[in-house]
Prior knowledge:
Blueprint: H1 9-12, H2 25-41, E1 43-46, H3 52-65, E2 74-76, E3 97-99, E4 102-104, H4 114-120, H5 122-131, E5 138-139, E6 147-152, E7 158-161, E8 167-174, E9 178-179, E10 182-185, H6 196-203, E11 212-214, E12 221-224, E13 230-233, E14 236-237, E15 242-250, H7 259-266, H8 271-274
Antiparallel strand pairs: 1-12, 2-3, 4-6, 5-15, 6-15, 7-13, 8-12, 8-15, 9-14, 10-11, 10-13
Helix pairs in contact: 2-5
Amino acid sequence: xxxxxxxxxxxxxxxxxxxxxxxxxxxxxxxxxxxxxxxxxxxxxxxxxxxxxxxxxxxxxxxxxxxxxxxxxxxxxxxxxxxxxxxxxxxxxxxxxxxxxxxxxxxxxxxxxxxxxxxxxxxxxxxxxxxxxxxxxxxxxxxxxxxxxxxxxxxxxxxxxxxxxxxxxxxxxxxxxxxxxxxxxxxxxxxxxxxxxxxxxxxxxxxxxxxxxxxxxxxxxxxxxxxxxxxxxxxxxxxxxxxxxxxxxxxxxxxxxxxxxxxxxxxxxxxxxxxxxxxxxxxxxx
Length: 286
């Protein structure tokens, strides 16, 4: 789908089941469903959100962009912060692991890609805002992190972490042959409580009752409170990578990622990261 054939929302989204652009009882019912899921689980999945005929396009576009992923195994903690020797040895920020997944930055995803169209869609943004109970959501001001493709190659996973933004909209664009399961701990922390004891328990493998597993398929839309829910993707098996598009919005305009985290994820930073004051959503570690 080139820029001269930019698809309409109705061609991409199954608007018969998910009338995101049409105010009324049908849209209200979907919004209420998502709100209920988020209140209970911190996560909502709308299966088959993208029409079957577009799913192959999503997969092909993701496969083409995956070659631009920044592959560099990093030693990270769940907050993706620099080591701090002032913290106690048992603090979860002192627990490190390899981050083996890779990210394609937004400026490497073609402007006419379906995911770019979805990310900038006013109708989708208004729908997401309604689902998360906000008057408006904003695209990130971050030129690299607003829209990304997460690439997890066979033998690698995306370790336990928290997101920078309060919530994330995402969809798998290529499923792995094995593994690559999304696991999360809903609401394990809040904007004013890191809940270090519970986070530590999960990292130690002792918080099984806090962990939920969620199968995701190409074309499903996931809305997830990733700022407050510890989450990961388990190791991928089989012959090909797992791809997922991440559409990051914020409740505030101007949100830009931290320099350290941006360099970890993309191997580079831009003047937007180094020259401007960061807009933060809370005072958590990150």
